[in-house]
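Help wanted!
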Amino acid sequence: MVGSGGMGGGLLENANPLIYERSGDRPVTAGEEDEQVPDSIDAREIFDLIRSINDPEHPLTLEELNVVEQVRVQVSDPESTVAVAFTPTIPHCSMATLIGLSIKVKLLRSLPQRFKMDVHITPGTHASEHAVNKQLADKERVAAALENTHLLEVVNQCLSARS
Amino acid sequence: MAAAAALEAVAPLGALWGLVQDFVMGQQEGPADQVAADVKSGSYTVLQVVEALGSSLENPEPRTRARGIQLLSQVLLQCHSLLLEKEVVHLILFYENRLKDHHLVIPSVLQGLRALSLCVALPPGLAVSVLKAIFQEVHVQSLPQVDRHTVYSIITNFMRTREEELKGLGADFTFGFIQVMDGEKDPRNLLVAFRIVYDLISRDYSLGPFVEELFEVTSCYFPIDFTPPPNDPHGIQREDLILSLRAVLASTPRFAEFLLPLLIEKVDSEILSAKLDSLQTLNACCAVYGQKELKDFLPSLWASIRREVFQTASERVEAEGLAALNSLTACLSRSVLRADAEDLLDSFLSNILQDCRHHLCEPDMKLVWPSAKLLQAAAGASARACDHITSNVLPLLLEQFHKHSQSNQRRTILEMILGFLKLQQKWSYEDKDERPLSGFKDQLCSLMFMALADPNTQLQLVGIRTLTVLGAQPDLLSSGDLELAVGHLYRLSFLEEDSQSWVAALEASGSLATLYPVAFSSHLVPKLAEDLCSEESDLARGDGPTRCSQHPRCLQALSAVSTHPSIVKETLPLLLQHLCQMNRGSMTPGTSEVIAVCQSLQQVAEKCQRDPESCWYFHQTAVPCLLALAVQASTPEKEHSVLKKVLLEDEVLATMASVIATATTHLSPDLAAQSVAHVVPLFLDGNISFLPENSFSGRFQPFQDGSSGQRRLVALLMAFVCSLPRNVEIPQLNRLMRELLELSCCQSCPFSSTAAAKCFAGLLNKHPAGQELDEFLQLAVDKVEAGLSSGPCRSQAFTLLLWVTKALVLRYHPLSSCLTERLMGLLSDPELGPAAADGFSLLMSDCTDVLTRAGHAEVRIMFRQRFFTDNVPALVRGFHAAPQDVKPNYLKGLSHVLNRLPKPVLLPELPTLLSLLLEALSCPDSVVQLSTLSCLQPLLLEAPQVMSLHVDTLVTKFLTLSASPSMAVRIAALQCMHALTRLPTPVLLPYKPQVIRALAKPLDDKKRLVRKEAVSARGEWFLLGSPGS
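Answered by r_m:
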């Protein structure tokens, strides 16, 4: 499901991206330390899950490249829904599907099963926005992609903690 | 007879011949050491060795000759101290001659010469001749590294011992050495060679016409570009080479004309390390250079530094550039000039000003900071430079401040001004008129007051800092300025909670009050006093909630300015009076208000500790007053005011106690003795004569049949006597100890019995060893045993036992082990078991009120480790032997001990405790669970192999605990699940599906902190054995 161009060696498509500042760790509030108070899952929590995902072609995180932003995360804990919009660095980025897949896998591994998740490209920021969104929304295609050892390897690299 | 003697001599000589043959022909290495040992022990002479070698030294085959000379050289290396002058002369002649020999022979010859260079008996003249021979005959750079190193060693040895002779060679020596090191490439040799060059220069050897050559042969390595190979056994770092080369290059002004162009070139380089090295080297050069050396290069140097500071992206380059500019300016300032010479400092500074000043005036303020930093770096170099720059820049900045109207621009400008003002503090001007700031004082003050009055917090903050700096300038601010400034500080101190300005204002008040006590005591303290009074009446009327919130701030301000003894004399009575007023008035003060006053007193006490006189004043004034208030509150009276009850509350007494302790710890022993002579009789005999306003209706008898309120005041006695210096004698100690013991097991309120036990323990800890101490201990043990055996006072007796044990553990007293055992015995006590388990936490932790190092208690530094080694085996045995229902007590006790120990100390011990820790995972107590998990987590990271044997238990238990009702346990269990992934992957893979399924549940935990750990643990487990991880 991912085009072979641009992956592996070869030239970077966007060799000199703008780098954004990383937000610090979320400060721990008194409420969070109180055993009794339930903390609902909010946009910042979802953002914290995906902001440290590594970009497939830069030694930078999606947050540093501004591919993901907290304002583009919609979440409703009671309704168990999450929607994440991501913005490829350039409109022809061939990595878009791979980035979307990484976000999707990260959420699948990190959120309770009750959540219904929607990962899509920020409207108007990618040439083949519709095609990519369709692929990401197709459960079977996502599952099939993860059977592919090569793809799984790249996704796992994106999800590994930076050493 | 003669024949027999000859035979004896021959026999060992025969052995020598054999050894020599084995070495030379037999190619064995061992005999060399044997021969050397025999020469050292006197069995043969060196001459005999030479004779024995005889033919091999002249053998036509170069390999054999080399071998022969090698043996001789090795012997000489070990025995050079035994040589006689005559022998040395012959050997040197021989070796010098051999330098002409075949190249295979040369390494051994050099070794021999090295041995001879160490020789004390070397006659004058030979060192020079050896060096000449080497310079002439040997092409050093074609030798292997080891042999080149030998040559450097020979030179180093001679330079150390024959300096005068070598200097006799004149510049020939320098030239010879230049040829020796020319082309050297090995870092090990370079370190030695650089050292030799450094010595040549610093010990003033003649360089003659070879200055430039010597510079070339060393500077060709600049900037050093060397990365040590991995696993380098020689341990030479890049930094070693950089520093030793820099020492050479910066060692003499004679290199200046060659070095400065090189440095300018390298600063322009693209490579970061080259820039840094060049700037640092320039910085080092400035220590030895003068105006003469720098003159021609100043414009280029300034241009390079300016470019680096203006354009750089690297903070390090900027910092080094500024440091270099600072040294350059310092160097120019330092030089002594001839009367007619031009002073380069002025023209250099004018250049800097010219290039920077217009940036300060640009409306977009783009390069203001780099410019200001450059100017400040130059101004920080000397008083003259500072004067020159400040007098030019200040008017400009003052003008700019008025041109800009936005607060944040004004803040930037004021911050720059502040930087220049701070530099003034480096130089002291003797004459008042010379001070460059005096001319600008009025303008600066008006700027500062504008900033202080501005609503923008950031501008206020810079204003406050400016005030502090201006205030630190002697005789700058007039009394009118000060009055105005104090007014501002007063206003700023009462700003809302979320502004940082009030904190800064209080801090500034504190530091300025030490310098201008009169201004503060005449303009600030009266206002604060007024506020405090009006609030009292407000409180009494019960209105004005807005003013009420000012109350704590007023107390904070009073303690903040108490930095000068004369101010303390005003603020302390105010605070104490306020406390008394609260007592007398009809209003109803809350606990928190009384505590706020006590905390303010506490801060004043801390500020007084530095000055012995204030310390005594505080003690003398505050302690009797606080005691009087407390005593009055505790004596029976017809009507009990509310405050009286408030004063006797646990929390209030604890705060008062800490004021008394702080006021006591720093007393000198004489004064402490004076004080103790009043306080102890007060408690033992009810002697209230030293208390102010001592007309109480009832008697004060805390140890006799006084009310329970009176007994509570033992906490204050404890604070006092347990903070005294160790050598202060306590009157009626014996009686006091017995009374305390009695009270500690008295069935009144736990507060007073615990205070008595702590007080007893505190005194015990400081008491010198001897018969009296043993008696006290015996009394205590009897009391404890009596109490523990019978019903009503068991818990009091236990508390006493705990505190006495703590007092002894801290000082390594031999009896501490008995008491600890007793305590361990109580772990299986059905009633006291849980308390005993928690007692271990007390034993291992630091107290805040008694038994502290600040309070002069005897606390050995390693007491925790020692307690661990002494008692953990017994705890483990006790655990195994204990019946099932009390096992958790043992585990909890153990957990406390393990928790308090530093992890690095604990780690090597943990594997032996592993089986116990695994068992502890099943313990229902959450303290035990938490402590066990926190022990296992580092163990999983450090010793994965050992832990993998228990993977089954660990996975099951951790997963169970990740559903614990306690959030902290869930978090710790999930952290352990994460740490488990460090175990070898094949061990874990069978568990992967099960774990991933189980960890889905905590992903939906109601607490965010738990979910976070679950996410990271589950993420790691997903990666196990998966491609790309």
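OP: Thanks! One thing I noticed: Confidence is low (pLDDT under 50) at residues 1-11, 540-548 of chain B.
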